[in-house]
Design goal:
This protein is α+β, with helices and mostly antiparallel strands. The protein has ten helices and four strands. It has a single domain, classed as Alpha-Beta Plaits. The protein has a four-stranded antiparallel sheet, sandwiched between helices. The two termini are 24 Å apart. Bound molecules: guanosine-5'-diphosphate (GDP).
């Protein structure tokens, strides 16, 4: 079992149909350990995307992530990191629309910045990103990745 951080980007939260479709997809594929609507500050967004600092899209991306609330989730599944990235589709929306039109980005991405969602790309990234977005999440005790265990059923969260 692996956990990953998923973010639904601000424009998705303004599209109730898209939001409900994506939540249903998540519910069918993952155990949801945590879920919350969160306003990501510019500072937090810059920390989150620090690896992209200096790239031409960095300011655009971090400003967009701060432009309205995101929906953040900690998801768990077998090979959960890869599974969520598969469902998201390619980073570039043009590619997503033409090569994976049924992916989340293929359906709900508007541009490379507004590409609908985020997913951790490794176990280390998942732990780092969860600590930024869910600082209250008890990593040592609860995290299967840290403990090599499956989270107990009681940890499951209902999607609102
Ligand atoms: P991801 O793991 O698929 O989200 O992709 P990356 O980690 O490479 O990039 C992080 C985010 O930066 C992406 O989700 C995009 O929103 C944005 N991004 C990446 N490449 C580009 C680009 O060439 N142009 C723009 N505008 N945004 C980009």
């Amino acid at each position: 079992m692996e956990i990953t951080l998923a973010l639904l980007k601000p424009h998705v939260l303004r599209n109730t149909y898209a939001l409900n479709q994506i939540k249903a997809l998540i519910g069918n594929n993952f155990k949801v350990l945590e879920a919350k609507e969160v306003q990501i500050t510019k500072e937090l967004s810059e920390r989150f995307y620090a690896e992209h600092k200096g790239k031409f899209f960095y300011h655009r991306l971090t400003s967009f992530m701060n432009s309205g609330p995101c929906y953040a989730l900690i998801l768990q599944a077998d090979a959960g990191i890869q599974k969520w990235r598969q469902l998201m589709g390619p980073t570039k929306v043009f590619q997503a629309v033409y090569t994976e039109p049924q992916s989340i980005r293929g359906m709900y991405g508007l541009s490379d910045t507004r590409n609908a969602c985020h997913g951790s790309d490794s176990k280390a990234s998942a732990l780092r990103e969860i600590s930024i977005i869910f600082p209250e999440y008890k990593m040592e005790k609860d995290t299967p990745q840290a403990e090599g265990q499956v989270a107990p059923q009681s940890q499951q969260t209902k999607l609102k």
